[in-house]
Fold these 4 entries.
Entry 1:
Amino acid sequence: MHERSSVTTFLFTDIEGSTHLWEREPEQMPPALARHDALTRDAVERRGGIVVKMTGDGVHAAFTDPLDALTAAVQLQQSLADVAPVGAVPLRVRCGLHVGVVEIRDNDYFGGAVNRAARIMSAAHGGQVLLSQPVADLIGTRLPAGITLRDLGHVRLRDLAQPEHIFQVLHPALRDSFPALRSLEAVPNNLPQQVTTFIGRERELSDVGRSLANDRRVNAKHVAPKGQGDRGDRAS
């Protein structure tokens, strides 16, 4: 079994809401998906990329040059945004790009860069293209005319220990405004929200509460002499 290492840029895509589309348009989805697959393969192969595998409603593709991966993603988005055949289901595809050193074995790729590219894609919305800081660094000043990058800051992604610095690809023919990324910051978690500044002092607070409830001497200090409260009420 032949193995080798390679610095590779990965493009992951998938169709936003594909399960719902299959439920809503079961007869229209097969031709729509076939059109999607043809446009995806054309975008990847025209830019010198390799389709590692089709993932059912997306693609896992590999490129030697990150600029080719970026332009393939933009081409795919433009192709899908063109006027679709009458009656066709509109497909919104999200894209994620990342670059890194990976192992190549049996015509497949293995390593953290593959997983990170997939997670970057998962943070995007349909019609959005995201890429990592390493991709932006390698492209440098080679961005084609009309394409710019919007800095979205550091984002925490599912199953990844370190946050990723994410950029959005901007192009005049593509939508540029989207909701917040699908990151861990945007998803409610099961951690209890601390509504007090006494963080980490829960045991001490509980002990104080029990003392206040059980110590008669403490309670007695807060009981007014008989009749004193009545006089005060009447005087007011």
Note: The two ends are 93 Å apart (CA to CA).
Entry 2:
Amino acid sequence: MRLLLCIVLVLFLSLCEVHAQATPPCTAPCTKSQLLNDVQTQFPDNTVGAITPSILRNFQTNLISSSMPAAPVGAGAFTCYVGTTGLLGTCTSALGIALGGTGATTQPGAAAAIFPLPVRAGDLVYWNGSSWGTLAGNNTTTGLLQQTNAGVPSWVSGSAVTPLVFPTPTRSGDVVYWSGSAWVTLPGNNSGSQFLSENASGIPSWATAAVFPSTTNPGDIMYWNSTAWVTLPGNTAGTKTLTENATGVPAWSAYNAGTVTSVAAGAGLTGGTITTSGTIALNMSLVTSSLGADVTVTTAYAIGPSVAQGTTGTWYASGTVTLTDTAGAATFFCKLWDGTTVMASGATNIAAASASASFGLSGVITSPSGNIRIECKEGTANGLMKYNTTGNSKDSTITAIRIQ
């Protein structure tokens, strides 16, 4: 029974394989439509036919052969679609620029596909802001390349431009500088230590280095003698002062706190002029005066104590007056002056008849025009400027002192 079932199964599989391969597959390389057709015919549903390993191997072989070139290509080479079949194969023509190539098979051809076509030896390619352009190579003697401020290049004859060539050095330390029109050489210094200086026109030259001299003593002083720095040895012999002569040369001199060679006596002083020794004394002019009798005081100013001091100098004056009224209470007004300028003024009151009051005035005046005096007045004609109410006979007195 088992043997019978096996025989039936083998016959069934054979029939299925024959049925599935009734439509032959395509021959590689196959197109996309052919491969899709093989999928439909070689891989039927199980209800129609069986799928065998042979079918799978055959389909996979066709797929590989159709998706890869028939022959291997070099490393980095491209594969291309062949004809209108859509099949891949080895590229037989150059790639265009749109595909990342130049569309050329030679170096000049590739350059021509990107840059403008050159026409002569030395042609230059430049960017004009929107595309690549060509500047024809120079072929008229030696030319220099220049550009406008817009970046457009052109050739300039070499004879029209002076080359900026450095001069040839001749010794160690040569210095090259621009004279304003060309590069010029300043020969290197070979005469001791010097420094490089320039005049107002920018022309350099070598100058002797201004080197400070060596110091030897504490307090050494360096000074310029108009040609070089010189040392004045520091003072080591007591306290001294530094002096300079008319040419600016310094020297140490014995210390002197100051020597007075002449003293003159000014206004208000006597003695002098002193050159070595002598005495100056205070000698201020002084004048004083007191009333010798009572002076009647009315409604007009009456002159009281007065001094004749003269009209020269500056004077300090001070005085006191004693006042009374025989009739009753009164108010007195007094002033200290020279007849032109009032130096001081004031007022005082008498409380009752025969009562007295004293007050003083003082002031300073320069170049008085007349005698310095005290004058008083009151509201009635009963006033007196007293000279001896106290019994000392100095009740109304003025004193003037010249202070300048």
Note: Confidence is low (pLDDT under 50) at residues 1-21.
Entry 3:
Amino acid sequence: MTQAHDRSLPRSPLAPDLTGQAGVTLIELMFGLLIGVVVVGAAFSILTMTSKGLRANEQIVDTQQNVRLAMELLARDLKMAGFGNPGVAVGNCTSSIVPSDNTNTGTDSGADSVQVLVPTTRTTGANRWTLSAPTTSGGITSITLQPGAVTDMVNSGLAQNSYISIGGATTVPVTAQPDQTNSKLTVSIPPPLWFQQEDQVYLLQCIRYRIVPFPDATGLCGDPSLQGAGSPCLTRGVAGVTTGPNAEAPIAEGIEDLQLSYACDGCTAFNSGIPDHIIDDVNTPAGFGQEDFLSNVPWTTAPLTPDKIKLIQIALVARQSKNDQGFGEKSQALIGSAAMAVGPAPSDHTLPADPNHRRRVLVKTVETRNVGL
């Protein structure tokens, strides 16, 4: 009789113990997937918010840098306005400063502009704009500059009939075509003036600052085919020049508004319009204050003439070059700028609200050094 198999025999120690084990249920699997989706979604949201926050901060920094750069360049030229003024028109500049208020008879509807007679020079390098040899007191018919200096000056706009200043002591026209080969300029300086080697030579130019508003159909502020192009910008260049190295060109993007007001000495009937080295008190209350800065003035009728200007208040507004998309996942503008009066009271221009761009305002008062001399 065959012995039956004993099912109670000991199990092999190598066999797995499946007692009490079960598979993952569908509900557990779905719950785990849900948790994973929530974690990934939260991480993606944090990444999106961080990325947008970084871009927003970068735009803020860029906007602040742009308005500071624009202010530095404009203030520098206004301080030097009138240096070496020959007393005659140079280019489009009939005086050291030619203010151009947007609306001379009322509240402005746009940005101001200004033309400034400023000196250009080069102080370093082998081709620096300095005399390579001294002159004599017997009268001067030509001057010799460092090798390459005249060529550099021609590239910067020097031509026959341009005005140059030598050391700030005398200003004369260049009466013949510049001699680039020998680095000489033909001038006429009567005795007893004489100059030493390395005395600085300056080219006088009529520089204009103006705002190109949005939209910029000409593409001057940027390539119109690129995203974000056509934003407003501040341009600088020789007034009226449209081609070449001296053409008006953008120097700071995103500059939306420029407002200028002026305080003067000798602009009022008090003291017969004669400058007395005291800034005019033209409005109440008594004593010089913000209310004594003038705008909406043609500056062409005595005693209100540019040579009386002693202080210039500059108000610049810069805006972000691209839309501000907020910090959420949606591409939606959440931060903008309310309507704002440009410059200290009394303001001459109010910018409308902009729901898509943040703005930065910078105001600075500059003292003119050479106007009226």
Note: The two ends are 139 Å apart (CA to CA).
Entry 4:
Amino acid sequence: MAQKRMNLRSIMKIDSECIQIQDLDLLLERILLEARRVLHADAGSIYVKETVEEEGIKVDKLAFKYSQNETLQKELPPGQKLIYSIFSLPLNDKTISGYCGLTQQLVNVPDAYNLPPGVPYSFGKSYDQISGYKTTSILSVPLKTAEGNLLGVIQVINSKDDEGNVIPFSKNGEFLISHFAVNATMALQKAQLIRTMILRMIKMAELRDPKETGTHVNRVAGYTVEIYDRWAAHNEIHEDIKEKFKDSLRIASMLHDVGKVAISDIILKKPAKFTAEEYRIMQHHTAYGAALFDDTQSALDILSQEIALCHHENWDGTGYPGWIDPVTGATLKAGDNGKVLGKKGSEIPLAGRIVSLADVFDALCSRRAYKDPWAEENVLKEIRDLAGTKFDPELVDIFFEILPGIKQIQKRYPEAG
């Protein structure tokens, strides 16, 4: 009983931390991590319910979002992350997680290779065969709202005892994960609401600028967080500081081009390259975006302003808009010729330097009205060639360190059609 009370206190502390996370993707990863910790589970996955259209019919599926595996992670070089497939499962009784989501009931499987007779679901052995990992015990729990709506499924794998032996998940484990799932669901609802509001703002920008799509900003945000995560590891940033910064950073980076709503459609929707005058006008979107966050109330506001203003600055000082007041447009620093000076090097906030790299990479890889996507080898050469002029060279090195993770984000957020 004393152990159960201690576990519940631990869960309550985790709940209070999760509810403070604003970004949906970071929250999903944290929920999975904490669920594993509570149950001493070696591995796990988290799925989110999504409705997709197939042959004109709307179908509910479980979209695989994140996976963690302590055993396989230890086999990787320090700092490298697991790379896993991006897929979705039908919401039916053929798989363990699908059955859990369909019935909205917890499913406890002591041995995945010896399922009880009569159960409708089966265990797919293909992942174990590819990875060399042995899945034994599985516990799946639905994430459902108080109104009975399914948000997703947490599936944890291979509970371990104090000696590291794989054991079945206990009844106490079922109790703990069920309690945890209730509060995790509330945190998810809040994060989904924030994500929906952000994407509505992006949709408004997309109506003005067809390049500013939800998938584009999700990719840029994903790259940005991965680059920062590795930068923070290199620079020994404390874990608590890193996680809080990542939470604001991901949301703020999605809003990097929100200032484009103030630019004329004649320029935004032009299916060709800009003239010199059009390009000059387009440059104002950085100041317009930063001005939206002038009344800073939080760390998120500060980061959003920095990124909107500085994501087109160049490492060598040749970018824009330079040292200006985004609200008044007044020049803050000018050269001998009287022209505004560009920010350079570490004068550019870290978040702006990261988003600059992430945004250009995604633009080069994407189709535009005036260009086809570049070949991957040409994109990577361009990024490398621009280190020290356009981009922070340290960040370029980090980008290539984490390139497999960057490519995985591309797969997670493909362009429609």
Note: The first helix runs from residue 2 to 18.
